[in-house]
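Appendix B.2, paired examples.
Example (i):
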Amino acid sequence: MSVDVSPRSRPRAVVLGCASEELRADERRFFAAADPAGFILFRRNCGSPDQVRRLVDALRDSVGRADAPVLIDQEGGRVARLRPPHWRTYPSAAQIAALPDLQAGEAARLGARLIADDLARLGITADCMPVLDLPVAGADLVIGDRAYGGDPDRVEHLARAVCDGLIEGGVLPILKHIPGHGRARVDSHYACPVVVTAHHELSRTDFAPFRGLAAMPWAMTAHIVYRTLDPAVPATFSRTMVGEVIRGEIGFGGVLISDDLSMRALGGAFSERVRRALNAGCDLVLHCNGDRGEMEEVVAAATPLTSEAAARLARGEAMRRRPGEFDRQEAERRFDALLGEVTR
């Protein structure tokens, strides 16, 4: 593939995955020409710590930017790309939320700090967590135990603790799934959910945790139609949802990245998906599966980062701290003791 990208131009507004544990020569050439803003890792990319570090270095080297963001979904529970025997198992959000209030907040922060330690050792700089969605009765289980419950204030409190733990460990949190996925009655990986709840109720409940954490550096959109706000277009494609709700009512000012463009909630060719998401106001589009043909179509349609998106990325990066001293052994001891509260 030949992509005309000036060396002085901004990176393309895309985050891409690769196929396996090693970066192939043809992938390296493709990424060098495409110049994506960043990368995302999945289970297929994570074999051992040394291997992941080599892959992360190779991805950044392919675009010539040592600070290119590298993302991962490491929530704990069933959404974990790093798994034993090389990495510890972390509890789900629901298991954390089952603790008494004080212990839950400490466990949320400490667990996130441990995850950040795992990621920082690998060169990974952003984690697609916490999940701020509020599941309701009858909702699809795609969120389920990934959520901290249905009380907006408590979800905000625990999610803030997670953000604090990640940032303390040098990793940026990515809030999911703005403006709220908890009412979806189908899995957006396979179909497009439609939420019919009134705007005032959404604002009081689903939007509230995101509003409380609007100063965080990144957030990921929900591929959901909110019929009372935009009757036909999922939030990822909706100027109303991005401009008036996410940026306006919720007040989120950080980097806005789409959920995966490969999900079946979105229709149309990949080129159309890219254009609609960026035109709606997403700063970045996400393509995860490493399929070369799909990525070529995504890259061909993607524009360089806007000046606003570049500024948001820079502000987010400025929030990422250099980790201080961290007693991993003591942190794990305390974390495991807190988790014991679930069964007491």
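Example (ii):
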Amino acid sequence: MTDATKEKFLVLYLIPSSVMADWAKTDPTIRQAEEQKMQAAWGKWMGEHAKMIISSEAGGKTKRVTASGISDTKNDIILCSFIEAESHEAAAKAFEDHPHLQIPQSSIEVMCVRPMGPM
């Protein structure tokens, strides 16, 4: 399958805010060692799957826009990536052993991306 025939997907990496808050309270020595271990595993995974990754970006502060206006908000998204794969199933399967899933209550969502076309 050529890159032109592969499908595109949005990948969302999520961690509940309560887990993040608990992690921030963890002893810094323990936290640093665990973060280094995960960074190494993440780097290995990224290297093994580099061909499918188009881009990855870290999440930051979030604004919600509604008909009532703009407000600060929070969500569980900490990172997003755009990837290419042969199918939705193949894309999801690639993340089954992702190091992000070692974080308690974490999840990864893989969503099809389609061209919007004229409105």
